């Protein structure tokens, strides 16, 4: 009689958890989750950086660091979700049905509290990281630097033009000297565009009636791709040009050659 009563008692939470963890499908999900997490970390740390644009400024380095670290941080979440999806698919394929006495995770208070707190921590981390990264010393140093090169950028359907007031030249390629702060004054001649010199890690809207200012300091020599990052009409996808971060001597020679042509490229 006593044994019969024990059998009818509902299992304690501890018994349910250990029974849950000893299930074959749960163990397989953990192993698959660890495997996918490792794959995403390897992709984020060693593979993705090879596909990213060259880093020609500290702002671009900060962008790349954020992409790598956020991939690593989100790897366990993506890994576990992919593992659950794959295990469910395999179970369905084998015709298995879930056991009746499984833990109801969706309404399990400790799981809900842990899941919500971890998500909130990730969001706060992302927010603080972004704010700190946007206020780096590099950006502060370039802001109102007395020796800054000023470039007035105009977006129009569908081309970029660059006016260098101190050099009195207007061009369609963006050449910059290395290790000198740059101030971009950005405006649009028509609809909204977005000025994006990719390898410099800065991007800002070009509006029709107001000038937007951004600062950066290119710190490596290399090729620049300048794109429009705001859908601006039929040929938006072709609204791009190239440029160069180069030595001061090469930059001065480039300026002189354009001045010799009458100041426009
Ligand atoms: Cu555009």
Write the layout of secondary structure elements.
Elements: H1 2-8, H2 13-21, H3 24-51, H4 58-94, H5 109-134, H6 137-142, E1 149-156, E2 159-164, E3 169-171, E4 174-177, E5 182-188, E6 193-197, E7 204-206, E8 212-216, E9 222-228, E10 240-246, H7 248-260
Parallel strand pairs: 1-5, 4-10
Antiparallel strand pairs: 1-2, 2-3, 5-8, 6-7, 6-9, 9-10
Helix pairs in contact: 3-4, 4-5
This protein binds copper (II) ion (CU).
Q: How many helices in DSSP terms? A: 7
Determine the CATH topology of the largest domain.
Answer: Immunoglobulin-like
The rounded Rg comes to: 28 Å
Number of domains: 2
Low-confidence residue ranges? none
Structural class: alpha+beta
Mean pLDDT: 87
